[in-house]
Amino acid sequence: MVKYIKKCPECGGINLILNKEKGEIICKDCGLVIEEKMIDFSQEWREFDSDQAAKRRRVGAPMTYTKYDRGLGTDVGQRGDIFQLKGKERNKFFRLRKWQYRISTAIERNLKLALAELKRVASYLKLPKSVEEESARIYTMAVQRGLVRGRSMESVVAGALYAACRRHEVPRTLDELSEASGIDKKEIGRTYRFVTRELGIRILPSNPVDYIPRFASALKLNAETQSKAVEILEQAEENELTSGRGPTGIAAASLYVAALINNEKRTQREVADIAGVTEVTIRNRYKELLKKLNLKDKIKKKVKK
DNA sequence: AAGACGAAAGTGGTTGA
DNA sequence: TCAACAACTTTCGTCTT
Predict the structure, then answer these.
(1) In terms of DSSP bridges, do strands A24-27 and A16-19 run parallel, antiparallel, or are they unpaired?
(2) Sequence ranges of the domains in chain A
(3) Å between A249 CA and C11 C1'?
(4) Is the Cβ–Cβ distance between A264 and A225 less than 8 Å?
(5) Topology (CATH level 3) of domain A208-304
(6) Buried/exposed A177-213: b ≥16 CB within 10 Å, e otherwise
(7) Any atom of strand C under 7 A from CB of A207?
(8) Residue A38 carries which DSSP code?
(9) 3-state secondary structure at position A12
(10) pLDDT in tens, A58-104
């Protein structure tokens, strides 16, 4: 039987998300993967004896991009048949082995190192496995296209992670990635853009709503305020206040306003720090929100009480 | 005294010629 | 390739609670 968990054991958050496609339950607050690889284990065939089993089973070990050779590696043999060969044939095998070694080591050695780094950063940021896998895939493609040349391995790793986060709608800010990887924020942004452009990865502009739960829990705001913030965001979107603006700034401002309305006041400074923007940006967005959405009265009333 | 507000100058990235 | 431009940041002074 499946046991349904309602709260995140790590942070107590209640924003658990079931992603059926990826087979995961993720806490949207802290990113903890509560349940993963929830694969449907049922078979579409049945086997009644070993003969049928041999015919119908058709899978080997799982393939993964987080292993440098995807867990599929083969080598040109070093033992066995090769020593039964004579002269020319034997030399041919030695040559093959040498070339395989030469070709593979350059890329693979890089991948080995990079994937280790990738794992480290991913676990530091508590990213779900699916994101790690995705970023490993992106990085592997980048290496194969020779996009890492001239760039530091770490920055490409960070860029790949950032891209994967965005794709899976568990956005992390550039600042967070910068802190986790020790790479300059600008550098990550640069490689991120470069890699996604070269690989033709299309990524939607990140949605401010995706940031809300995480910021809200970091600020210890209750669920009511949180949904209020989302509500405000939706209105903002209708009034076209969101286009062209930094998503974190908008998310931060809506949270700030929502907190005011619900009498859970946080200072602009606090919100700004969590969201990784400045007070000024929050103020600007905040001003726009008040103006366009006529929230002014609501706040005044609450303050009077 | 701390927080909120606003103005002005600076920064990095995008865009259009 | 370069300049104009929008968004955002930094800094600093003033006002409010």
Answers:
(1) antiparallel
(2) 1-59, 66-104, 106-199, 208-304
(3) 20
(4) yes
(5) Cyclin A; domain 1 (1.10.472)
(6) bbbbbebebebbbebbebbbeebebeeeebbbbbbbb
(7) no
(8) -
(9) coil
(10) 665 566 766 666 555 566 555 555 556 666 776 777 777 777 666 66
CA distances from A255 to A7, A90, A228 (A): 23, 71, 8
Look over chain A and give the mean of its residue pLDDT values, rounded to a whole number: 76
Instruction: Tell me the nt nearest to A243, Cα to C1'.
Output: C7
Check if CATH label 1.10.472.10 holds for domain A106-199: yes
Tell me which residues from 224 to 253 on chain A have a beta carbon below 7 angstroms from nucleic acid strand C.
244-246, 249
pLDDT at A118 over 80: yes
Taking the C-alpha atoms of residue A114 and residue A251, their distance in angstroms, rounded to an integer, is 33
Q: What pTM does this model have? A: 0.69
CATH architecture of A1-59: Single Sheet (2.20)
- Return all residues near A284 (Cβ < 8 A) that are at least 6 apart: A249
Domains A1-59 and A106-199 share a fold: no
